[in-house]
Amino acid sequence: MPMTHKPTILVVxxxxxxxxxxxxxxxxxxxxxxxxxxGEEGFEQAISEKPDLMILDLxxxxxxxxxxxxxxxxxxxxxxxxxxxVSAKGEEADIVSGLELGADDYLAKxxxxxxxxxxxxxxxxxxxxxxxxxxxxxx
Length: 139
Ligand code: CA
Hints:
The chain is α/β, with parallel strands linked by helices. Helices cover 48% and strands 19% of the residues.
């Protein structure tokens, strides 16, 4: 199925192997990706590059994924950016906090590429629908 607009997905994950796997699978599906290993860079890119979706690891050196999520969802620049948080097992409390902060979905590590892609498709579809509704309300 050809995509008219190639969504851009920002991947923030400090484990290089996992980041590579996520990016590989997303690009194979036809998405554009930008990858970063730190929360600071991820946050800056989320504001400057206006990606369509962000995949965000919670345990990052420096600025945590939680801080990134909070700053985006409570900020004024790119509040509507959908975020899927990625978290290791045993961090359920963090997942709950992330969702309460406005994250759109979560993935518990380890996850299969098929699950990742299914979640990405669902969140993108939901956000496109939301954008379309908001446009209609404006007119
Ligand atoms: Ca990590």
